[in-house]
Amino acid sequence: MGAISPTHLLIVFLVVVVVFGSKRLPDTARALGKSMRIMKSETAAMKSDGKSGEAAPADAEPAVAPRVIQSAPGEAAGARPVDEPRDTTKG
Question: Biased-composition ranges for Low complexity (predicted)?
Fold first, then answer.
């Protein structure tokens, strides 16, 4: 009585298809899979960081890559570092 039968699973699947639409389901599944891979790699990195044996000094600053503003696809000169001012005199 308390078990989930194939009929229950079919009903749940049909409700999901009706709510989300059949065109969005592949994109949603792809995004979910990508998120799970990222989470898995991050947890593995956290575990390996904890096993390195040496703790970083409290006053040491972490190495940070410079932030970059990404350009739109097809725009060649749009990506630039955040700190670099853009010359607005050129037209």
Answer: 54-66
35-70 residue pLDDT tens = 999 999 999 988 888 765 555 555 656 666 666 666
Residues 6+ positions from 28 with CB-CB distance below 8 Å:
20
Digit-coded pLDDT (tens) for 74-87: 665 555 555 655 66
**Contact partners, residue 67, CB within 8 Å, separation at least 6:** 81, 82
Rounded Cα distance, 42 and 69, in Å: 24
**In this structure, what token pair is assigned to residue 40?**
């898995």
- Enumerate the domain spans of the chain: 25-50
Asked if residue 52 lies in contact with residue 44, where contact means CB atoms within 8 angstroms, the answer is: no
The distance from CA 9 to its chain's CA centroid, rounded to whole angstroms, is 29
The pTM score is: 0.38
